[in-house]
């Protein structure tokens, strides 16, 4: 499944990457670290160490590509301009040895003890279609990349009769996800040794499809 789009900035194709290349995965992990570098929630999960942001991103994209589904906007050089990673119903991020060996163990070994405890107490896994990552490089934003990729996932999940959820720690994203048909089902402030952060949890409302 793919969709092509031509914008005044750059031509890109939206598609599921069944076997993303190492270069695509590496760049996706870097993009996660770049975009989330000042996010208090992610900094907290990294035990307050911003240097662990990229190892976490690299572990997530690789685990998701292995046992989840990886959708991306790629240009004519097949470079990733933006991507969305989801774990379908029945698949949970970092739940298998195969996933954990792709960077998760390395990430955890570098966390301070307080960070390991905070990570264990905070991270919740949900057995539904869960969108873990939605990243678009700054110069490619506002071109419909993220929304187009998310709609591809919605179409697939809804066709199977499944529920789709996601969360955000950025209030700016709330209205964006609502415009796609998601409904806020929870909002919480979370204290951490590295600062308080907020997050919103969404569920897709099929009536908006």
TrEMBL record:
GO terms for molecular function: acyltransferase activity, transferring groups other than amino-acyl groups. InterPro entries: Acyl_CoA_acyltransferase (IPR016181), GNAT_dom (IPR000182), Trichothecene_AcTrans (IPR052523). Residues 15-209 form the N-acetyltransferase domain. This is N-acetyltransferase domain-containing protein. It comes from Cristinia sonorae.
